[in-house]
Design brief:
Order of helices and strands: HHHHHHHHEHHEHEHEHEEH
Strand order of the largest sheet: 3-2-1-4-5-6
Number of helices: 14
Distance between the termini: 66 Å
Strand content: 5-15%
Helix content: 40-55%
Number of strands: 6
Largest sheet: 6 strands, parallel
Radius of gyration: 24 Å
């Protein structure tokens, strides 16, 4: 639907290029999220050379409409192939721990492609909507970079401080056992009944188990025991900013009970009890202490400073960043409830009176 003038033709080619980069990059991101591709940054031989060459070819495809009519299938097909290839090279070198940020950036690209398409066909509404999507995606990307203490350029160049540990399919299904002396022997239900200041930390495991309604029931039960209940939300808990907020809102958790990391981080030391539901990397003390790991320097929720901690996680494997969490082995004050959060929370609620 683009007109035949050079501006419309150039805009059409740019829109197809950005859309193609978004498409192939998103496929790579999905494959890494589902562990079809390795989570570590993948750098092919001559990676920068190939990426640079593809950028030059794409630039040539963009200026070509100034000299010829690019509606010919060969020119369009070639530009799409080059763009798809660049999208793969662009995404594949990002480490698994940083892939959520790349996904947010790709979301922004999709809006940019839509806006440029609007320029090509003279549709103001498409330009407006695409611009809004692109801008919001870029804002989310900036928020996530700040939350993870990462530079966007370093992420796109695959410059994580270290590579996440790869796990075999057998390791994925195998739970790690904690030594007996690392498990608290104190009755957790007695602790729960006496707790008057409770902080609940939701994570991606809660989303996978669809346990947000059980988390709400747990919070309500503490409230009936005259306890103050708050929910601590890490900016990148889950796969996108706001993921936990949306799930808890679905379960009718009062928005006033949700607290961002900076608002609540100093309160963990004063909490009687902190309950973790499916969170790992965002509470991992290694982010403060273990230099050379993918999460080192990332701001975390100070759960480890709480005197009593209940952890409802599926297993004790490292989180998405592949970094072992020393909190699991602390022993004193840590109570582990391993398994699907929907099952373990339901069982806990049945016994918590």
């Amino acid at each position: 639907g683009a007109a035949v003038d050079p501006f419309s033709q150039i805009a059409a080619v740019v829109a197809m290029i950005v859309g193609s980069v978004t498409f192939s990059g998103s496929l790579v991101a999905a494959a890494k999220l589902h562990r079809i591709l390795p989570q570590k940054p993948i750098v092919v031989k001559g990676h920068q050379l190939w990426a640079g060459l593809l950028l030059l070819l794409l630039a040539f495809a963009i200026v070509l409409p100034m000299f010829i009519n690019v509606t010919k299938g060969a020119v369009i097909s070639a530009s799409i192939v080059f763009a798809l290839s660049f999208g793969i090279l662009f995404s594949i070198r990002v480490g698994g721990a940083d892939m959520p940020i790349t996904i947010s950036l790709l979301n922004s690209f999709s809006g940019v492609a839509g806006a440029i398409s609007g320029l090509a066909i003279g549709e103001v509404l498409l330009v407006t909507v695409g611009g809004i999507v692109g801008a919001s995606g870029l804002l989310l990307t900036q928020i996530m970079c700040k939350a993870m203490n990462r530079s966007l350029l370093e992420i796109l160049l695959g410059k994580s401080t270290a590579t996440p540990n790869e796990r075999t399919p057998e390791e994925e299904t195998q739970r790690l056992e904690v030594p007996g002396d690392a498990i608290s022997k104190v009755d957790p239900f007695e602790i729960a009944r006496n707790a008057k200041n409770v902080i609940i930390v939701p994570g991606y495991g809660m989303a996978i188990a669809q346990a947000q309604h059980l988390v709400k029931q747990l919070g309500d039960k503490f409230s009936r025991h005259n306890a103050k209940v708050r929910y601590a939300i890490h900016p990148v808990a889950g796969r996108m900013p706001g993921h936990m907020n949306v799930l808890l809102a679905e379960a009718d958790v009062d928005y006033d009970d949700l607290f961002e990391m900076d608002e609540i981080n100093d309160d963990f030391t004063k909490a009687d009890l902190t309950i973790v539901v499916g969170a790992n990397d965002v509470i991992n003390p290694s982010a403060r202490e273990a230099q050379g790991t993918p999460i080192y320097g990332m701001p975390i929720l100070n759960v480890d400073k709480s005197p009593q901690i209940f952890i409802f996680n599926y297993d004790l494997q490292p989180g998405y960043a592949g970094v072992k969490n020393p909190l699991y082995e602390r022993g004193s004050g840590v109570h582990l409830f391993l398994g699907n959060a929907a099952d373990t929370l339901k069982d806990f609620l049945e016994h918590f009176e």
